Amino acid sequence: MTILKKQHPFLSLIRENILAVLFFLFLVLVIWIGLENLSTSTQSEQLIATEQAVRRAAVQCYALEGSYPSDLTYLEQHYGLMLNHDRYVVHYQSLGSNLMPQIAVFSLEEESPVSNLLFEEASS
Q1: Separation CA 61–CA 79 (nearest Å)
Q2: Which of 1, 23, 47, 110 is deepest in the core (most CB within 10 A)?
Q3: CA-CA distances (angstroms) from residue 78 to 2, 39, 87, 88?
Q4: pTM score
């Protein structure tokens, strides 16, 4: 006498359609990875755009006034430069009134040793 085991209908459905289920999971994984890469790319483009905006404002100031500004505050007040200080740390070091300042922008949102170090210094 053979005892037949009754299988759960959901498990038998998965066994019958295992390739379709695996393909669906693969598609979900590919879409998720693609969205993560898109987000990372967008963040790096925003970082570059912010640095370019600071450079343009400094060059515009030099062209109109004959000297580079000594700090970012001057650019924000007189040239309409708008920075998101909650999202970025901008390093602006004036080397002289006739030399292009050192400009670097760091993101506070991404996890990197540089941004973590800058955030810790700003908190102190």
Answers
A1: 8
A2: 47
A3: 90, 33, 22, 20
A4: 0.62
